[in-house]
Amino acid sequence: MVTYFDACEILEMLSEASVKVFLDGGWGVDALIGRETRTHNDIDLFVEKKDFSKAISVITWKGYREVVMDYTTDSHTVWKDDNGRKIDMHCFEYVEDGNLYDGYIFQSETF
């Protein structure tokens, strides 16, 4: 489970390392609404390809370990710490039209 305070801590540790992330999924919705609407099993983050290895270094230094899932790919990984907090991390790159690509095309204004 990832609480509000956990989400803030995760975002802060990546921000302090100058890793820009886009918040997605349930926490992304709650951030837009301005309040926690439900219990969250994880936090979904999009990280630019150029910062992906740096993000992984930061979270592993903080005690997160990769959990291989059926959907794990080079650009979609899941990380978990000893407290059960999970980070669902997508690696993306910008394509020529400014949209994001992580195996799927996302319109840039989505984020």
Quickly count the helices: 3
Which bin fits the share of residues in helices?
A: 25-40%
User: pLDDT under 50 segments (min length 5)?
Assistant: none
Largest sheet: 7 strands, mixed
CATH class: Alpha Beta
Shape: globular
The fraction of residues in strands falls at 25-35%
- Give the number of DSSP strands: 7
- The count of domains is 1
Taking all Cα atoms into account, the compactness measure Rg is 13 Å
Topology as H/E string?
Answer: HEHEHEEEEE
By CATH, the architecture is named 2-Layer Sandwich
Computed structural class: alpha+beta
How far apart lie the N and C ends?
Answer: 23 Å
CATH topology (level 3) name: Beta Polymerase, domain 2
State mean pLDDT (0 to 100 scale): 91
A few lines on this structure:
This protein is an alpha+beta fold. The protein has helices at residues 4-16, 25-33, 49-61; strands spanning 21-24, 43-48, 65-67, 76-80, 86-94, 100-101, 105-106. 32% of the residues lie in helices and 28% in strands.
